User: What shape does this take?
Amino acid sequence: MARTYLVFLGIVAFSLLISGRVLYLQLKQGPYWRAKAEKVQLRFEQVEAERGSIYSEAGHVMSTSVPEFDIYIDFKADGLLEKNGERFKQNLDAVSAGLAGLFADRSASTYKSLLKKGYNEGQRFLLLKRKVSYEQYQQMKQLPLVRDGKNKSGFIAEARMKRLYPFGLMANRTIGIARDSNMVGIEKQYNKYLSGANGKRLVRYISGGAGIPVEGSDIDPVDGCDIITTIDVNIQDAAQRALHRMMTDNDAERGTCIVMEIKTGKVKAIANLGRQDNGKYWEDYNYALSNSEPGSTWKLVTLLAALEDKKVSLETMVNLEGGQWQVAGQTVYDSEIHGMHEATVQKAFEKSSNVGMAKLAYQFYQANPAAFLAHISRLHLDQRTGIDLPGEAKPVIYKPGSRYWSKTTLPWMGFGYNLSITPMHTAMLYSAVANGGKMMKPYVVNKVLKDGQVIQENKPQSLNDSICSKQTLAAL
Assistant: This one.
């Protein structure tokens, strides 16, 4: 009996200890733990702002955001529990049939079983369907039960924005891609305008990790601005098709096609294609803004310099050496060994003679390379064009005194080698000649709009009102 009493007293003491601890936790530490639990259960989450759209100059949508929804059901919603679940039971068959007809992924009976099970178990946040389109969501809101609203039906839609590009690959590297990790094009350059400002909402997390938004706690997001570009979708389509045809015919590795409005500098189209491992072409990189040796297109610069400095006229004779010429121990070759010797400067240019242009550069500027380089600078070919797109490469123009300068640098520069510029520079240069000598800065965005109001506008900007004299221009 003594042992029994002892055990009994021990149990009583242990029970009193537990009771005391419970009272202490509830009364003394209760406020602290309740606040801590509330912090764990309640959390502010980001509400994504709607990203602005990008349009062509004529108003065609080239990039836009559309909402996409994940659908959940809270079977503890007050409206579902009213009158012993009368609303849910009355609408179960109709809503099951409606969901089956709308999504066509389950039968009506399967939907009915799923909903019935969720209701019986009192699930708080049952995932019904992911990635529901805006059109499907609008139709779903008209179904029986769902149309009563989320407080009475329990149906909850979590929205997120999905970026769409209606024209697919058209101007893909110019319009860009809206990815957090790797944005390109206009999407990147104008991201601060397009992105807007995200909002917040308070979410209560329940068992199983499910979260339910708390009513009246939202901080509304500020939607992004819209962008009106200079792109013409018809010209862009023509440029892209022409580029693809030329690359296929020539078995090219990569290529770009730029269409620029000479009077304004507006870029109406940029097409870029690179050959992939499978042999097909894809718009994988903005080659229009990457450096390369311009080759024969540069001969315009050499001729402009020689004419402007009155070193030659179009009738000046130059010996083309039959198509190959040795200088400083190296040989300059024309693309064809044509056998021509004495020819006018005009004929040398028409025939795109490397020898002819190398000789002009060597004969008139070897003793004073700075004079030739001054023309390059005047034509803005030694600096970025400043186009409003990210990733434009800076030209590489060698100068006397650098480790890359040698006796052959200048003659090779005469026909477009030993230097690098972007195709955008070439387009800008030729547009200036076509524009009466006025060089315009290229740009791809006309306006930034917020709720239809212009908050930023890009207008035609002259980089050089006269790249050369009228006489030189007429000769070119």
In short: The mean pLDDT is 91. The two ends are 123 Å apart (CA to CA).
